[in-house]
Structures are given as structure tokens and as C-alpha cells.
């Protein structure tokens, strides 16, 4: 899939088929993630891939807005290491997790970020060392609905902000008065 098709197709998916994700697909996604950038190339993150139904259930019920991870056949927990990169571990882990999301989209998978969980529960269940942080979870699986229909609906109910609300040129302004892009 073309990169801009990946960007245009991606939506947060919260309803999954029970079909497993084939290992070669998962491995391609993880390889795309391994190559993500990090400050000073410290790579201060680890991923824990969880398929175990009972563990997913306990993680799902530890939060409010991530119940659908019960349904997704795979979840990937992003773990950051503040010892290795005290100022950048959250950014670096987040970049890695977004690589998962984009690679998963290219593979025809649905995904969703989840931050609604009890970190202590997740750390305990997965044996994450005390010094490390569970930053976020990515739910992965084949979408119940076709992504294009979900995409059309999502565009209606969840529009992105307008470009002029997000971007200004040369300096920070909230009063968009056109582009001033000089090369
Ligand atoms: C850091 C982060 C945390 C999120 N946490 C949750 C969550 O706990 N539960 C959930 O259903 N969606 C969560 N989302 C998904 C957002 O709600 C979603 O990305 C946003 O509404 C835009 O929709 P889209 O992803 O379909 O473009 C999270 C997204 C991000 C980036």
C-alpha cells in the first residue's frame, strides 16, 4: 500500500474479528517498529506482545476505554525505560508504537491506541521491571467492518482539525493569513 494510502486509510478500530494475525505479518510489523527513530538512538523501549486471552481480559478490565482489547487477538504493550532516556523515553516509545499502527495498516490490519489501563496491573501481569513504564497499548486485529466504510463514517463523526488550525508558517500564529512558505 502506498504510504499516503496508509495514512488516509488508518482509523482507530475498536471491533475485531477473532482471526489470529499470522506470524510473518506480525514479524514484518515488528521489523518496521525496530527501525523507528529515537533520540540519540537510545531506543529506550521494549514491546510485549500479548495474545493470552486471560491476560488481555485483565488488562481490558483494568481501564475504562479499552474494553475492546478483549476482542483484538493481539495487543502490544509499549514499555519505556526512563533510566536509559529520562527526558525522551515517552516520545521514543510513542514513535515506535505509531510505527506499529502504520505498518499494521499497510498489512490490512485494524489497530487502536489504548492508554486507558491501570499501569500497576499491567506491570504486575507482564512482569515489567519496577523502573520501567507501561506507556501505551496498541490493539491489533482484522477489523469487523471493512476499513473503507469505517473510514467514511469516521470522517463524518471525527473530522481532523483544519490545516489552518494546526499549522502556521514562520512563526506561531492563531490568525491564519495564508502561507508564507519561502524556500
Ligand atoms: C495516546 C493515545 C491514547 C489513546 N487512548 C485511547 C483509549 O484508551 N481508548 C480508545 O478507545 N481510543 C484511544 N485512542 C484513540 C483516539 O481516540 C483516536 O486516535 C482519535 O479519536 C482519532 O481517531 P482516529 O484514530 O480514528 O483518527 C488514543 C489515541 C492516542 C494517540
Query: Number of helix segments?
Result: 7
Order of helices and strands: HHEHEHEHEHH
Q: Roughly how many Å is the radius of gyration? A: 18 Å
Task: Spell out which ligands are present.
Answer: flavin mononucleotide
Number of domains: 1
User: What's the CATH H-level homologous superfamily?
Assistant: NADH Oxidase
Output the CATH topology.
NADH Oxidase
> Strand order within the widest sheet?
1-2-4-3
Give the low-confidence spans. none
- What is the rounded distance between the termini? 31 Å
Assembly context of the chains? single chain
CATH C-level: Alpha Beta
In terms of DSSP E residues, the strand content is: 5-15%
Provide the residue-averaged pLDDT: 93
Helix content: 25-40%
User: What best-fitting shape do the alpha-carbon axes yield?
Assistant: globular
Textual characterization of the structure:
The chain is α+β, with helices and mostly antiparallel strands. The protein has a single domain, classed as NADH Oxidase. 38% of the residues lie in helices and 15% in strands. It has seven helices and four strands; from the N terminus they run ααβαβαβαβαα. It has helices at residues 3-9, 23-34, 53-61, 89-106, 119-126, 147-157, 163-166, and strands spanning 45-50, 74-80, 110-114, 133-141. Strands 1-2-4-3 form a four-stranded antiparallel β-sheet, with helices on both faces. Helix 1 crosses helix 4 and helix 2 (23-34) runs antiparallel to helix 4. The longest helix is centred in the middle third of the chain and has 18 residues, at 89-106. Bound molecules: flavin mononucleotide. Residues 11-12, 14, 65-66, 112-116, 136, 154, 158 line the site of flavin mononucleotide.
